[in-house]
Design a protein that fits this description.
By secondary structure, this protein is mainly alpha-helical. It has five helices and no strands.
Length: 89
């Protein structure tokens, strides 16, 4: 395995989730995709590399997601993602 299998499956999950949650929570498709990756435990740098974005862009998306979901910490963000069904334990 070349290390891409996991991300390929995450990407497919992100597409499903982004269409399901973007309208409900006014998250963009990209924000929904990033929320999924955050919920899966990926760091900003990993997300940036995977999505071919700058780390600053990912950080900006994270802040926008937190603002839209009215959460104030990374832990709250993960808890909210769990409640939304974005990820499971």
């Amino acid at each position: 395995s070349n290390g891409y299998t996991y991300f390929d499956s995450v990407h497919m999950d992100c597409e499903k989730i982004s269409s399901r949650y973007s309208s409900d929570n006014q998250l963009t498709n990209r924000e929904s995709e990033i929320l999924q990756l955050i919920a899966d435990g990926k760091a900003n740098k990993e997300i940036a590399n995977f999505l071919q974005l700058s780390r600053k862009t990912v950080e900006t998306h994270r802040l926008n997601i937190m603002k839209k979901l009215d959460v104030h910490s990374g832990i709250e963000l993960i808890k909210t993602a769990l409640r939304m069904g974005v990820c499971t334990i």
